[in-house]
Write a structure and sequence with these properties.
The chain is of the alpha+beta class. The chain has ten helices and four strands; from the N terminus they run ααβααβααααβαβα.
């Protein structure tokens, strides 16, 4: 099956077969696809927690409307937005310059431009901006999972502040969405619903 066929095969899996694992090699490929997603200014303003520990996931389920994907999946990826935009710029420049003062100096223009752009945003806008990128990365991970015939479910049905507490997230990291990964317990009962193309696309 081609990549495009696999996108049709994938579905938002409601319950996974908890006895079937996702092999480490596939998890690594999915994480790599997430890493390859484009981000605004290349800042990668997200962080993903890969939650395998069942006890943690049982606690998370209590704040995820009891959804079965949380503790039947093999892994629950928690996509988080980073709100430490200025520090992220510093960190990127440190990495790119390899700590070399002259290389860092050459990046001063870029640093000022990036920080200026971040400083113009309100804290809410920074969160929203980082969240959009976390979702894009989630999409890459979900597409990669389909290519590997790993089932998945994107989810935002959970109480974010409670999940942040359970995961003990630092204040600049906010959970935004889950991507549950595993093996479907059964095929979906209903065909996919999609609006007609004319409702979704406009060709000009
Ligand atoms: C942002 C987002 C949040 C979602 N949250 C949930 C969720 O909490 N629980 C769930 O079962 N499905 C969730 N879904 C899955 C959608 O219901 C599903 O993608 C949609 O019905 C289309 O079905 P398909 O993905 O199988 O094509 C979510 C999807 C997205 C993109």
């Amino acid at each position: 099956m081609s990549f495009l066929d696999n996108l049709e095969w994938r579905n938002a899996t409601k319950e996974f077969d908890a006895s079937k694992p996702v092999v480490q090699e596939d998890l690594d490929k999915i994480l790599n696809a997430i890493k390859m997603a484009p981000t605004s200014f290349g800042l990668q303003s997200w962080h993903v927690y890969v939650v395998e520990d069942l006890e943690t996931r049982k606690k998370m389920k209590e704040h995820s409307f009891g959804q079965a994907q949380v503790d039947t999946s093999a892994y629950l990826l928690v996509f988080c937005a980073r709100t430490d935009a200025i520090e992220r710029v510093d960190s990127m420049i440190d990495h790119l310059s390899g700590g070399d003062a002259a290389a860092k100096e050459k990046m001063k223009g870029m640093e000022d431009m990036l920080k200026g752009s971040m400083q113009k945003k309100s804290p809410e806008d920074v969160l929203c901006w980082a969240t959009r990128q976390a979702y894009l990365a989630l999409g890459f991970g979900m597409a990669a999972a389909a290519e590997l015939k790993v089932d998945s479910c994107p989810m935002e049905g959970f109480v974010n502040p409670e999940i942040d507490k359970i995961l003990n997230l630092p204040p600049h990291i906010k959970s935004t969405a889950y991507l549950a990964l595993g093996n479907r317990l059964k095929d979906p009962e209903k065909p996919k619903f999609r609006f007609p193309d004319k409702d979704l696309f406009t060709h000009l």
